[in-house]
Specification:
By secondary structure, the chain is of the alpha/beta class. It has three domains: about 5-125, Rossmann fold, CATH 3.40.50; about 140-320 and about 355-365, Dihydrodipicolinate Reductase, domain 2, CATH 3.30.360; about 365-450, 2-Layer Sandwich (Alpha-Beta Plaits). The protein contains 14 helices and 17 strands. The chain has helices spanning about 15-35, 65-70, 85-95, 105-120, 140-145, 160-170, 175-185, 195, 200-215, 235-240, 265-275, 325-345, 385-395, 425-435, and strands at about 5-10, 35-45, 60, 75-80, 100, 125, 150-155, 225, 245-255, 280-290, 300-310, 310-320, 360, 370-380, 400, 410-420, 445-450. Strands 7, 8, 9, 10, 11, 12, 13, 14, 15, 16 and 17 form an eleven-stranded mixed β-sheet that branches. The chain is elongated, with a radius of gyration of 24 Å. It binds L-homoserine. L-homoserine (HSE) binds near residues 160, 201 and 320.
Length: about 450
């Protein structure tokens, strides 16, 4: 049977996982593909480091360049992480015309267009199923399965660490700091957690999904990104009482066009609000109704709900990180890469990121949202009236207002659920409310995503 030799860069958790998964299912894949995938060399940083999965020492080297340039290695698998060395290694392989499989979302997020162009220039392919949502085949779904759909919405739980923390905060009534510390102790969260808890990892993934769905490259700096550090136990409790669950969501959706305006602003307004040209791409903690399936995605699981104009609502659920789920996606890419090599096809599925020159990321200020607001106010007559008056001036409706009983002291919490308004209007109104002498702490503002 024809053999396809692989050079792997990185022998850590994922590299070891790919080695093990191929040992377990290599024969099955060979039977399915008619090709034998053979791991020829694995480049590691330190030969002496103990590894959870043993890779025979004669396969190991510390010289990544020799793995990339050795003509025997037909497909290069980049699992080293980071963006500097990984960029150099991936570029070197692509320049040699070798297909590359990567699990590196940060690399794609920072250098995607450059790497896709390099692959095209050298008539080879770049595969990245493992870069978004671990074992969930979401890249293939967007690139291939939904090729006949306009994507009308993506709502994704794409960071397992945040989902783990928010789940435990809800189920145990615990606060963020203590769950984070526990998650770090148990190995669910990194020692340096900011990439996850500040939303950047989710933004990398959401940007890649948005680019695929809407055909233009989304620069991570354009993605409005909020993490979960400011989500308090109190907000999770109030959200629960109101019938909602708080989840960190990556949201991608076209911004609806307002009714055409007559008069001299018509042209400008048309240009800026064409439904195909402005896309919301953002990451923030949001209240979602308990009845929505995403509210049941617990602990470190990921889920991506994709809505297409033809297919309607779909849901992809699974483990978004970890050795085996990530290895599963790498093996899927390896199958494609090997089949493409055999068939001599390059760019069989175009990257889908360059065909829509009319699309832009909408500024968060322009996005319409519903809001949950928590205020910490002096408990005295007339306070509600002052707050309501400022909201009325901003033309923002209140759908409910609650002062939960049982709170005593100088200040009490007040929860407002606001009708749809632009984020600009809500931000400005909240800034005015924050200045009222009766408001004693900075207001908390979270968005409500009904996902209808
Ligand atoms: N740290 C990520 C998560 C997995 O918690 O989901 C890798 O992207």
């Amino acid at each position: 049977m024809e053999q396809v030799k692989l050079g792997i860069l990185g022998g850590g958790t994922v590299g070891g996982g790919v080695w093990q998964a191929l040992s377990t299912n290599g024969a099955l894949m060979a039977a399915r593909l008619g090709l034998n995938l053979i791991i020829n060399r694995v480049a590691v940083r330190d030969l002496r480091r103990s590894r959870p999965i043993t890779i025979p020492s004669h396969r190991l080297t510390t010289d990544w360049r020799s793995v990339v340039t050795d003509p025997e290695n037909q497909i290069i698998v980049e699992l080293m992480g980071g963006t500097s060395l990984a960029r150099e290694a991936v570029s070197t392989a692509l320049r040699l015309g070798k297909p590359v499989v990567t699990a590196n979302k940060a690399l794609l997020s920072a250098h995607g267009p450059e790497l896709f162009n390099l692959a095209a220039k050298h008539k080879t392919n770049l595969y990245y199923e493992a870069a978004v949502a671990g074992g969930i085949p979401i890249i293939k779904a967007l690139r291939e399965s939904f090729a006949g759909n306009r994507i009308t919405r993506i709502a994704g739980i794409v960071n397992g660490t945040c989902n783990y923390i928010l789940t435990r905060m809800k189920l145990e009534g615990a606060d963020f700091a203590s769950v984070l510390a526990d998650a770090q102790r148990l190995g669910f969260a990194e020692k340096e957690p900011s990439l996850d808890v500040d939303g950047h990892d989710a933004a990398h993934k959401t940007g890649i999904l948005a680019s695929l769905a809407h055909g233009f490259w989304v620069n991570p700096s354009e993605i409005h990104t909020e993490g979960i550090c400011h989500v308090s136990k109190l907000d999770i409790e109030f959200a629960t009482q109101l019938g909602y669950t708080i989840r960190l969501l990556g949201i991608v959706k076209p911004v609806p066009s307002p009714a055409p305006v007559r008069g001299k602003s018509t042209l400008r307004s048309k240009k800026r609000t064409d439904p195909s040209s402005l896309i919301q791409v953002s990451v923030y903690p949001a209240l979602i109704p308990n009845s929505h399936v995403l509210a049941s995605v617990n602990y470190a699981f990921n889920a991506v709900a994709i809505q297409g104009d033809i297919v309607g609502d779909t849901l992809f659920y699974g483990r978004g990180a970890g050795q085996d789920p990530t290895a599963s996606s790498v093996l899927s890419d390896l199958a494609d890469a090997a089949l493409d090599l055999r068939a001599g096809t390059f760019n069989r599925v175009p990257p889908f990121t360059g065909h829509n020159t009319q699309c832009h990321v909408a500024h968060m200020d322009e996005i319409l949202s519903r809001f949950y607001v928590r205020l910490d106010v002096i408990d005295r007559p007339g306070v509600f009236a002052r707050i309501a008056s400022l909201l009325a001036t901003a033309n923002i409706g209140i759908s409910s207002i609650i002062q939960p009983e049982g709170h005593s002291g100088e200040t009490v919490p007040v929860i407002l659920m606001l009708d749809e308004a632009t984020n600009r209007a809500a931000r400005k109104a909240l800034a005015k409310i924050a200045q009222l002498p009766v408001v004693k702490s900075p207001p908390v503002l979270l968005r409500v995503e009904t996902l209808e």
